[in-house]
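Suppose a colleague, Dr. K., hands you the sequence of a protein chain of 481 amino acids and asks what its three-dimensional shape might be. Before reaching for any lab equipment, you can write down a predicted structure in token form. Begin with the sequence itself:
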Amino acid sequence: MAEADLLERLRALPRLTPAAAYVLVRTYFSKEGLRAFEDAIRQDARSHPIVYRARVLDGSDPRSLEEWLGDLVAASNSRHAFDRCALDRLIRLDQLLHDAPGPGAGGDRPGPFDDAEFQGYDALSYRLRRSNNPIADYYEGRGEAIRGEATQGGSLTPYCPRMTAVPAYQISGLSIQCGSAAEWPERTLAKSLLQVHHRCQLRVLLWPLRPMLHYPGWEHARQDSSILQLTLSELTPESEAALIAELDAGIEAARGNKATILVLPELALSSQAEVALKERLVDGTDRGHPLLTVFGRCHTPSGDGDLVWNEAVLLGARGEELQVHRKIHPFSTQLAGRPLGERLKGGEEISVVATPLGNLCLLICLDLFHAKVKPVVLESHANLLLVPSLSESTSAHRTAAREFGASCRSTFVVNRAFDSPGFPPVPAGASLFRVPRRRNAEAVHAAEPAGAPYLLFSLAPLPAPQVPGVEREGGGNASRP
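The predicted structure, expressed as tokens, is then:
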């Protein structure tokens, strides 16, 4: 029986600790399921509500944990009683581990469990991480929460909102890398982000780029029908100059609007433009914004034949490189009736960094909704998804953002089209964001000609506009479902 199996695994632990017990019991429910138990609870009119908070365990006292285990043993004659008791103990552990003394709160310092792996009920390895979701917590605290996830059958979210078990094994050949802002080379950056969190000042500026960018690789593909795979490693000189001027405008808008994070599209910056961006961030360090900048890098050699990397890069306030995500799955499209794809060497991991703003994860376009990648993101603790994109349509992005929102994840997609024949401009490919637990959860950038405002998310209500040309959340150009 499953309850006897769980008890045997708990007794077999070399040392019964709150962290080890939590991972075992949580993965027991993940694998065995909650639905049968929840159905039984709903049918029993004498039962108390499932979601409640019991007294907190003393994790420093081994006797407390032994009593905890004894309670499970006493309830093991009935699967229903056992599951109810196990879920109650899991709720207690969730609170206990979240409140554990030591570093790790908000991702500004290493967490107390960062280096450890724990065996789950499925005999696989897991890491323990805090859920760390300031955006969802903010809207819940304001009484705006529409907590759809709290009523979903089979979800552990309403029971264990503070901690999660993250797979340390590969899923479909992909791994989840866990990091922390405490590991960033610029130590003051995490403290600055913590101040943004405490003051509820998070703002994310999505800047899709107004100029048409022309790639020699794209033009070659148009002229040579034998080319079936693209490499977009550089821009024409005219596009380069226009792009650098546009970066100046984007950075100035981010500073004027005190944006914490500036996000630019996929395959947008050549090596020359990247140097210019970093220089401008260094030059404006004293102005304080943006603290983080995300951009899509033009294709770079992978070292594996003629295959290339497609990378999203996270920069700090001084232009220092903090994180790189390599796109996992290539795009494919049609050009003049023939298939055209990306000569991509796919990445093999997603990286989640605990920060005071949430658990930050970079994805690129198709990664957000691809059948191989999406389940990995859902198994991770990522809840702040920043997504540079280059696509003729963002309808699939929008659908994925809704699905991620159901599990309390925020999604920010900045997109542009190729602006070449066969690729329509916005609105089909509009940038968008969606955040959980808020009545007006989604905003989509309006479809306007080049030079129109762009999309700005603000956690707290925005003051009057400071910089022309930035579309504010809730403004006249933002469309809502």
